[in-house]
């Protein structure tokens, strides 16, 4: 009488209910944040596709194309509040979308709690600095600064 080899080496079905304790929910409330972060990635991704492709179309296809993109082009574009807000939304969404993606990667691959904390701190500080500086540049950009040497002022600025 022989015993079947299938019985001796039976494997449990995947997701059979045996979950390692470190993967079980403990009711800490992080599930809601992670769900909102997941939803943000999907919504911001769709909005970014529209923003970026419109940005590329206006900057590279309309008019003289890539040859028209220079300091004067950007100055003229940012003279219009619509383009300032457009670029601001694109900056904020891109940085938050990318930061959230990197945060997820850090959570997945950084094993030690201290390592995760430091990596995420660097990520959050870098994201905040880039958002702050980008916002500052968009709203304080002046292509015709007062008291600048005449040879540094663009042609489209009225003479001071």
TrEMBL record:
What name does the UniProt record give this protein? Answer: Succinate dehydrogenase hydrophobic membrane anchor subunit
Task: Name the keywords, alphabetized.
Answer: Heme, Iron, Membrane, Metal-binding, Transmembrane, Transmembrane helix
Please state where this protein is localized: Membrane
Regions crossing the membrane: 39-62, 82-102, 122-141
Q: Name one Pfam family in it.
A: Sdh_cyt
Q: Which SUPFAM superfamilies match?
A: Fumarate reductase respiratory complex transmembrane subunits (SSF81343)
Species the sequence originates in? Arthrobacter zhangbolii
Asked whether the keyword Membrane is assigned, the reply is yes
Gene Ontology CC terms, in alphabetical order: membrane
MF-aspect GO terms: metal ion binding
- Check the record and name the InterPro entries matching this protein: SQR/QFR_C/D, SuccDH_FuR_B_TM-su
